[in-house]
Amino acid sequence: MLLIWDIHINTRYQEKILGELRTIFSAYPDEKTIVFFGDYVYHFAYDRNALLHLYNLFLELFEQGKNVYIVAGNHDRLGSSFVFEEAQRAFNIIQNSEFIMQNKEWGKIKFVTKPLLETIEGEEILFMPFFLSEEHEINNYTPKNERLKAISDFSTLLEKATHKHEQFSWYINKFLAEQIDKNPNLTIFHHYYINGTAFPGQKSKFNYKDIALNELFLEIPSIKLISGHLHQPFTHNNYLCLGSVRSTSSLETNQNKYVYQYTTANKKITAIPLMINPQVTIRSQEALTETALLTELQAINEANKNYFSSPARDITFKEDFKPNLTNISLTLNVEHIDYDKIDEMIDPELRKSCKDIRLKKDIENVDNLLKSFKVSSDDLSGFSDRKNILQTYMQQKFGNDYPKYEKVLKELKLL
């Protein structure tokens, strides 16, 4: 099967996204199951035109005899409704009709907006889309597995929480613990965070207020967790995060993007590279040439592969790394920003080849900066500590000019 996550389609990138996906689907004609794992909408910006073009792709795959699963993500709601709700209702009707039953060469489309257990290519797969209503009754089931029992018992504490997301975290954890206890070898396709865990390549950790699965699920070797939601792909224990198909902002710099081929018979996964709109940030002390840029891109490629380090997941990378420079938005970290001297920083021909070039002031590493300050609490939990850091930084940066900045900061009540 082919796995695609976090498309975040909009008009600007729809042609590139759909073109790349069609190319991959054509290259793997024997794959009959295609799973789209949610987040079709771009940051809650409902682009009707782009979503209709994506829906046309779903229909193409259906007519080609593919079995298409369209899983709801956290961005895919208009109010309380799924963004493809009308299409979902239509297919629920026509796929049971005599006309569809007579056209055996057609596939099927399933819009997954609530938990769904399916046997696909011989593997038991539980779909857990991002859903916001309790579709399944939670009973007093007590798991027999001790680790699952611990998850279930802890989840009961969340039920009494005042934060609605913590309450919903109780629901999904209680539900998943029961499903795994009944089927210890489940593969779970989900669209949630994992609580309190620092993953490879990730700068943030999440908790139950973000709606999250219990971190103890990562310690159950018999199950396989597969998700998107986070845009940097990685593996960790039994967990594979697929990432997104494109960079949705400049914050997603130096990230590889993939579509995945998953073979259920041997559990092998092949990562197929995508280069829809890569954001690349590098530091260069001399004029950047195409050769130097390609070397940097290869280093970034290898660094991304290192995020897939879990021995529990067998990941193979399709080795056809041929970056298309015309797709790249390049940011050069420089000591001084001067676009009049940009030809001294990057080869003019290379500058014409890249999609976009931006200069960014190189700042001191924040970790090193913080270590140079003395604060009263290591975790910076006090607001006064943050004020001290800001004041010390401004004094060091602006020297004799600091007083005029201090006056403004005090007026803003930042100092």
CATH class of the largest domain: Alpha Beta
CA-atom Rg in angstroms: 24 Å
SS content category:
alpha/beta
CATH architecture field of the largest domain: 4-Layer Sandwich
- How many runs of DSSP E, i.e. beta strands? 20
Q: What coarse outline follows from CA principal-axis ratios?
A: globular
Helicity, in percent?
25-40%
Description:
The strands form five sheets. A seven-stranded mixed sheet has the order 6-3-2-1-15-16-18. Strands 7-8-9-12-14-13 form a six-stranded mixed sheet, with no helix packed on it. The relative contact order is 0.09. 32% of the residues lie in helices and 20% in strands. Strand 15 and strand 16 form a beta hairpin. The chain has 415 residues and is of the alpha/beta class. The radius of gyration is 24 Å and the shape is globular. The protein has two domains: 2-330, Purple Acid Phosphatase, chain A, domain 2; 366-411, no CATH class.
Q: Can you summarize this structure?
A:
The protein is an alpha/beta fold and 415 residues long. It is built from eleven helices and 20 strands.
Attribute tags:
single chain; 415 residues; alpha/beta; Purple Acid Phosphatase, chain A, domain 2; 2 domains; 20 strands; Calcineurin-like_PHP; Calcineurin-like phosphoesterase domain-containing protein; hydrolase activity; Metallo-depent_PP-like
SSE layout and pairings?
Elements: E1 2-4, H1 14-27, E2 33-36, H2 48-63, E3 67-71, E4 77-78, E5 81-82, H3 85-94, H4 98-102, E6 108-112, E7 116-120, E8 123-128, H5 146-159, H6 164-182, E9 187-190, E10 193-194, E11 212-213, E12 224-227, E13 234-236, E14 239-241, E15 257-263, E16 268-274, E17 279-283, H7 290-305, E18 315-317, E19 329-334, H8 348-353, E20 356-361, H9 366-371, H10 383-398, H11 402-411
Parallel strand pairs: 1-2, 2-3, 3-6, 8-9, 9-12, 10-11, 12-14, 16-18, 17-19, 19-20
Antiparallel strand pairs: 1-15, 4-5, 7-8, 13-14, 15-16
Protein name: Calcineurin-like phosphoesterase domain-containing protein
Domain Calcineurin-like phosphoesterase: 6-233
Organism: uncultured bacterium (gcode 4)
